[in-house]
């Protein structure tokens, strides 16, 4: 994790969750995140193909020159990048993984800006991990942020993190109890297929490689 906002949010989430896979949505206090609140957001996993912004910080919205509430996070990505990001989101919302990835945004004036995104599961009562707490922070601070919005973006790196060193479904008793069918989200979230790279602790998603990590917050 390279950006200070990424590390601060991850540490906050770790403190809240304790020995659980993820904290509850009601435990998130905006005042606790006041230094990085503009870089944070919350997504709602409405299906395996849709993750909508419920909240987005002012600096996140400024990067794109518009209010993001209600927008689908996956609509920002195309082709194999969309497949890779969807796979990370599914692992977060279904298996309580954490994920961090980098991308390069391009403005309408062809200026480039590297950014870092963190995705963390939070539990919504009665629904499981259908909320995702995240941060999106530019690695530079050019003058044109808020003037020339990002128009396209390309994923440059991905990392899937198991904070307890193994997926939640392998830890007996961790998964939320199943809800009645009528109360479940409209779809079951399943990650896109990944292939294991033998001996390297890596998994390939389309044209990208997901690096798997444990408790370490280094990149």
List keywords for this structure.
219 residues; alpha+beta; 9 strands; globular
Question: Helices and strands in order, then pairings?
Answer:
Blueprint (H helix, E strand, L loop, with lengths): L3 H14 L22 E8 L2 E7 L1 H7 L14 H17 L2 E10 L4 E13 L3 E11 L11 E12 L33 E3 L4 E4 L2 E6 L6
Parallel strand pairs: 6-9
Antiparallel strand pairs: 1-2, 1-5, 3-4, 3-6, 4-5, 7-8, 8-9
Plain-language structure description:
With 219 residues, the chain is α+β, with helices and mostly antiparallel strands. The protein has a single domain (4-213), classed as Beta-Lactamase (2-Layer Sandwich). Helix content is 17%, strand content 34%. It has three helices and nine strands, in the order αββααβββββββ. The chain has helices at 4-17, 58-64, 79-95, and strands at 40-47, 50-56, 98-107, 112-124, 128-138, 150-161, 195-197, 202-205, 208-213. The chain has a nine-stranded mixed β-sheet with strand order 2-1-5-4-3-6-9-8-7. Strand 8 (202-205) and strand 9 form a beta hairpin. Mean pLDDT is 82; it is low at 174-201.
